[in-house]
Amino acid sequence: MKRIAVLTSGGDAPGMNAAVRAVVRTAIYNNIDVYGVRRGFKGLIEGDLKKMNLSSVGDIIHKGGTILRSARCPEFKENPSCRELAIQLLNVFKIEGLVVIGGDGSFMGMKSLSDFGFPGIGIPGTIDNDLAYTDFTIGFDTAVNTALEAITNLRDTTSSHERVTIVEVMGRNCGDIALDAGLAGGAEAILVPEIGYNLKEISQKLINSNKRGKKQSIIVVAEGVGNLNEIANQIKELTDMDVRTTILGHVQRGGNPSAKDRILASEMGYHAVELLMEGKISRVVGVRENKIIDMNINEALAMQNKFNERRFEISKVLSI
């Protein structure tokens, strides 16, 4: 293999730049030309490719976001002619393999090219941690720490005003960010899509805490649970307490990636290039039990997420 390309797609995640850097430098080390595709699959069908060198990825390992930019491209998914055009353009640039960094939607885009016979390798870059085949996705650890910092800061003002603060974190339909940030932040309750909740029980818990002198509480809610204001209003009615809400939003996608995300991205980017050099296609890179692994994309996407119910039970016990 003499020439490959790399793109970032979907929602940006801290550590994507570290992954791009690893792909570029590993390729160049092995005498492989590498091109960066700007703005994901949208840039791919527009032929927005640029040859990269060592300087192209200098001083980016610590930066959030993605230097290649990202964009949504629904037409790539919906229109087969777009995928055919993408392969034609890749052939024009004499690209022999593609590394895609993103979430499940990005992987489906890569899979559609692999179905046409074009070699592709996927690297999981999403803060949601919602890809079942891998223990962690790039960006998740940083997003948890960003949410944790916000929760810690909110606890100060929550305590000062003796109120209940409900914090909504991202994650789509996956509660991993809420669980880890809530556990680390000492939340009095954590609401996730994977496990049902009873607001009457939570409210009674808040009332009991208030009676024993604890005048402030933090509740962490994953965005896939439901309407935040409705939850807040019900708790207010049930407890007669001062209840406020905070939606952290896209702040969780930004910021310098943690050491864990930088290392994970570096190892995954390196392994992705190795796979292309070995002639393997339609595979995705992941991590299990602290070891970098890869598997067929169809098998990976067919796996069902397993929520860490033991960690959730621990959070409930420690929040009494």
From TrEMBL:
ATP binds at residues 11, 72-73, 103-106. Its EC number is 2.7.1.11. Residues 3-276 form the Phosphofructokinase domain. ADP binds at residues 21-25, 155, 186-188, 212, 214-216. It is found in: Cytoplasm. SUPFAM superfamilies: Phosphofructokinase (SSF53784). The active site is at 128 (proton acceptor). It comes from the Bacteria. Its cofactor is Mg(2+). It catalyses: beta-D-fructose 6-phosphate + ATP = beta-D-fructose 1,6-bisphosphate + ADP + H(+). The keyword Nucleotide-binding applies. Catalyzes the phosphorylation of D-fructose 6-phosphate to fructose 1,6-bisphosphate by ATP, the first committing step of glycolysis. PANTHER family: ATP-DEPENDENT 6-PHOSPHOFRUCTOKINASE, PHOSPHOFRUCTOKINASE. This is ATP-dependent 6-phosphofructokinase. It comes from Filifactor villosus.
